[in-house]
Amino acid sequence: MNNKKLLIFAFLLIAVGTNAQVVQMYDVDEGAKNKGGRTEIPVPKVQYDDNSVEIICDSLVYNVEITITDESGSILHHSNETLSPSSTILLVPDTSTNSKYYIEVESTEQRFYGFFQ
Description:
Blueprint: H1 2-17, E1 21-23, E2 26-27, E3 45-48, E4 52-56, E5 61-70, E6 75-83, E7 88-91, E8 101-106, E9 111-116
Antiparallel strand pairs: 1-3, 2-9, 3-4, 4-7, 5-6, 5-8, 8-9
């Protein structure tokens, strides 16, 4: 019986994972990379599904401000997080509507943004 439950759980986990969409992230100040004086952080990898956003960063970055807004400018999520190679999962209200959403990931060194629908 336990094997059957484990198999069902694994199937559900795989099914949920396949719905995630990747968000293309952009560096707000791309030109500053050639200007020295700041520490570069890797571009975070962001995925979303209907009610969660997952953020993964290749290195450990402390005190990162994350803001998610809808197309009218209403804030759906705002928090300070530590990003790491293991994922940071943010729960957001259901985004299964056809609205567009904006995510901003900002540290003291850099600011990234992306859009998803």
